[in-house]
Amino acid sequence: MIRIENLTKSFSTFRAVDRISLEVPQGSFLVLVGPSGCGKSTMLRMLAGLELPSSGQVHFGDDIVSDGDRGWMIDPTERNAGPVFQSYALWLHMTVAGNVDWPLKIAGMTKPDRLARISEVLSMLGIEALAARYPNEISGGQQHASPSLG
Fold first, then answer.
1. Longest CA span, the chain
2. For 108-140, what is each residue's pLDDT tens digit?
3. DSSP β-bridge partners for residue 67
């Protein structure tokens, strides 16, 4: 679970993120949408540990991973999390299922767990029928639905 409490990020006098609080249950996907300049990337950077909050806290499960009030955060490499930005890359030599599988394999998941997660993600995105296709065999919209998810 991710819990964010009163998260704020200021750059000089500009407040990019202003006292955001929310909870994301374990196993859920967090999607941030909004107009340019509203703080989406800044929020993702704080979740990933690439940006120290000005104030507030980020919790992963029971652990505090960033505390802007105290001015510290856990190193990004120790969070087991990372943002997926709209600029993405699909591995052209891998199928859609292979593109979903690769980060799971790198993360050390067992093959049975990976296969279950691939099936779950493809089903959730409604692209099960595309599992065996390569990126050059699917449309641009389908490619946007199938970047590597971990």
1. 50
2. 999 999 999 999 999 988 889 989 998 877 766
3. 57, 72
What gap in Å lies between CA 120 and CA 27, rounded to an integer?
11
The CATH homologous superfamily to which domain 2-78 belongs is P-loop containing nucleotide triphosphate hydrolases (3.40.50.300)
Q: What is the pLDDT of residues 17-76, one digit of tens each?
A: 999 999 999 888 777 887 777 888 889 889 989 899 999 999 999 999 999 999 999 998
Report domain extents, the chain.
2-78, 96-145
Within the chain, residue ranges assigned H as helices are 40-48, 96-106, 111-125, 140-145
Query: 96-106 vs 111-125: helix axis angle to the nearest 10?
Result: 130
Strand order in the sheet with 14-24: 14-24, 2-11, 55-60, 63-67, 72-73
Q: How far is CA 76 from CA 44, 73, 92, 150, in A?
A: 12, 9, 28, 16
From CA 133, how far away is CA 140, in angstroms rounded?
13
